[in-house]
Every structure is written in structure tokens, then in C-alpha cells.
Write a structure and sequence with these properties.
By secondary structure, the chain is mainly β. The chain has one helix spanning 2-10, and strands at residues 15-20, 23-28, 78-81, 86-89, 105-106, 111-117, 120-125, 130-135, 141-143, 148-153.
């Protein structure tokens, strides 16, 4: 626990929450009160440019499935999502074969990947039966909680 506190205090994170089953822990850093420093830059004449309207930013995921860029309807697929924050690995070791590939059948309980979180390697098992149709994350990349990892065709 002390190592976790030290890790959070040395990072730029202001808050960290970890949930595993019925266990939940939240660590928050104290806010250091620092008076902001303002510097006035010299004003220079800029050419007149029409303002560009910014696209609206949504922090929530859409409630309905969105077709893929290729126009493919993904609403019939089930998504296997990351249960935690960490690093996504498609194989148990660099010299081992992939857990699953596009076209492979999965059953509930079949390991589909590993997510490394705080030096712990967590095997992620499928909770659905079907066929992998798309891998949504590159091997050895960071993933967020609830981030889609695979699309599975249940038919």
C-alpha cells in the first residue's frame, strides 16, 4: 500500500481509483496552493481570419453503436472491454502465440489477453461465446477502464 501511495505522489495524477470485485480504493493527492503568475505578452496586429467553429466535445461514449469508418454496422457485435487501466498484451510472452486472432472462436472463460497493471499481469477472459471479428487495440499499448478491446460476433 505504501508503494502505491508513493507511486501516486510522484506521478502527475491527482486521483486514482482501483476497483476489483467488492474491493475499491481511491487515492487523492493534496492540492498544493500555488499562486498563478500572469505575464502580459506584447500585442501584435494579426491578420483578420474568420473564426473556426470548434466541434462539440463529448466526454461520454455514445449510447448507440456507431458504424465503423468503412460503413460496417457493428451493432450486431458484442464488445469485450477492459476491466481495468493498464497495458494491453495479446500474448503471454513475446515468444508465445497470440491468445486470439480475428476469426478465432471464444467461449466464456477463454483468456483473450493480458492487462498489466502495477506490475501485475491480469488474464482477461471472455464472458461471451462467439467469433472474434476485430481487434480494437494495438499490442503493448495502454488501455483505459471500459475501453473496447475486441468485437465478437455472437452468431
Amino acid at each position: 500500500m505504501q508503494e502505491l501511495i508513493k507511486l501516486v505522489s510522484k506521478s502527475s495524477l491527482s486521483e486514482l481509483t482501483i476497483e476489483e470485485g467488492d474491493f475499491k480504493i481511491t487515492l487523492k493527492q493534496k492540492d498544493d496552493v500555488v499562486a498563478p503568475t500572469y505575464v502580459t505578452a506584447p500585442v501584435m496586429a494579426a491578420p483578420a481570419v474568420a473564426p473556426v467553429a470548434a466541434a462539440p466535445v463529448s466526454s461520454a461514449a455514445p449510447a448507440t453503436p456507431v458504424p465503423a469508418a468503412g460503413g460496417e454496422d457493428t451493432s450486431k457485435y458484442i464488445t469485450i472491454k477492459s476491466p481495468m487501466i493498464g497495458t494491453f498484451y495479446r500474448r503471454p510472452a513475446p515468444d508465445k502465440p497470440l491468445y486470439v486472432e480475428v476469426g478465432d472462436d471464444v467461449q466464456p472463460g477463454k483468456v483473450v489477453c493480458i492487462i498489466e497493471a502495477m506490475k501485475l499481469f491480469n488474464e482477461i477472459e471472455s464472458e461471451v461465446k462467439g467469433r472474434i471479428v476485430k481487434v480494437l487495440v494495438e499490442d503493448q499499448t495502454p488501455v483505459e477502464y471500459d475501453q473496447p478491446l475486441y468485437l465478437v460476433d455472437p452468431s
